[in-house]
Amino acid sequence: MSRDAAWTAFDQAASAAAATRIVDQFAADPDRMARMSVEAAGLYLDLSKQSWTREAFDACLDLARASDVEGRRAALFAGEAVNLTEGRAVLHPALRAAPGADFKALGEPVSAEVDAVRADMKTYADAVRSGAEVGATGKPFQAIVHVGIGGSDLGPRVVWDALRPLDPAIDLRFVANIDPRDMAESLTGLDPQTTLVVVVSKTFTTQETLANAEAAKAWLAAALPADGMTKHFIGVTAAPDRAGAFGCGRTFAFRDWVGGRYSLWSAVSLSCAIALGWDAFEGLLTGAAAMDDHFASAPLENNAPVLLALAQVFNVDGLNRPARTVAPYAHALRRLPSFLQQLEMESNGKRVHRDGSPVTRQTCPVVFGEPGTNGQHAFFQQIHQGPQVVPAEFVIVSKTHEDAPESPLWSNALAQGQALMLGKTTEAAKAEGLAQGLSEEDAARLAPHRTFTGNRPSTAIVMDRLTPATLGALIALYEHKTFVEGVLWDINSFDQWGVELGKVLAKAILKDVEAGGPSADLDPSTAGLMARLIG
Length: 535
Fold this sequence. Notes:
Elements: H1 3-17, H2 22-28, H3 32-35, E1 37-40, E2 43-46, H4 54-66, H5 69-77, H6 92-96, E3 104-105, E4 108-109, H7 111-130, E5 143-147, H8 151-163, E6 171-175, H9 180-187, E7 195-200, H10 207-221, E8 233-237, H11 240-246, E9 250-253, H12 270-276, H13 278-297, H14 304-318, E10 323-329, H15 336-348, E11 366-369, H16 380-385, E12 392-399, H17 410-422, H18 426-435, H19 440-446, E13 458-465, H20 468-489, H21 497-515, H22 524-534
Parallel strand pairs: 5-6, 5-7, 7-8, 8-9, 10-11, 10-12, 12-13
Antiparallel strand pairs: 1-2, 2-13, 3-4
Helix pairs in contact: 1-4, 4-14, 7-12, 8-12, 8-15, 12-13, 13-20, 14-20, 15-20, 18-19
């Protein structure tokens, strides 16, 4: 089947599915849950509450085949230039492969280099944790300040929040925002003599990161002997010469085939490897590698990232649902929605196909979320009763804490998914009002307000416990899902030109500010705002 024919069949199946109710599909298709669920790398995915019929599900799989997901997947793992606008391979799977792997980037062997950097990371992390590596005054490190932004911040931050002990031996803090308040909060209460600063920047030219790194360096320099300060100032970068020139005493490198939002598996997470311990970091890599193996080998109809991607494309392009919410029912995963915002929206928020022609369909939806049950008391009102249908994704951890209450947190997630699907009819709402003692008139008056249309889709992703391995598998699942969506939409998921334009304009505006006022070529609104802010 050609790609155009597959999209036509997809549209027809989506149109038919729009006229059906999800709950009715279970009666019409007794094997629905078995066929629309999959286990992989310690995760269980249930996509049976999605809006697709059996015919639509099959049409989605046909679209994946017609889009050559399998061929493009092979190209990714083979290290071909899948980032075609920048001529780069995209090889984050190489970063979590077991030692001795044989990955190549554009034909160049890279696994030995990955193994070497990983070994250096382990040696350094173990030395810092044991106290063998000390600061300028001979004191062991008790805190780390991780300076980065975007992928150099969100990935390590989600890992730390998910896996950190309640009383960590090493205090890890993050600085990303150029607002001095962020740095001030992170440094408050820390002793420069026992603090390690890790500056993470792929190019070592990122304006926000360098500004924050300068502030951290000045803070260290004010309290430490000059000849020992570099022991406290570490760089992680694909440009080690720039890091050295900036003042980093030691650098850990990664290559340009590691995209920022896919880089947490590299030395970008050095801070986490130190603060969590090497075993935890290695477990994270192992879980991600298990998901890599599943993605690379499982047939499309039983492939977790593929099915998750197909569900999103079906909602966005088949049923015109341009937003999705992610609700992790685990406090430790509270950063996951923010991480996914960058991973998915920066990757797939594109307006042209790979050949540069304009897209004719929607691409990445708006991604937002909050941990459950917090979100239930905020935006869940909209996803239950608002006129727009917003698909939901529930990430459920069976046991979130050793002292978890007898009433499990996950019962709320199950109830939300059930309520979104079933809803409540006006007749049922009126009967409920009468049962509560309302008059006939009041029950009828309030019934529309208590009505839920239902038929709203959701996916559940379940794990027994949140461990380094299951976290690694979860993040890798979303990475590969994002890639598959890019294949289906025929876009490049691995560049981010939209990020660059704002950076360029910010530098030009800053020059105007330093010159005392707006230049003649500024638009009236920007010029007026600048004048007001300068005062």
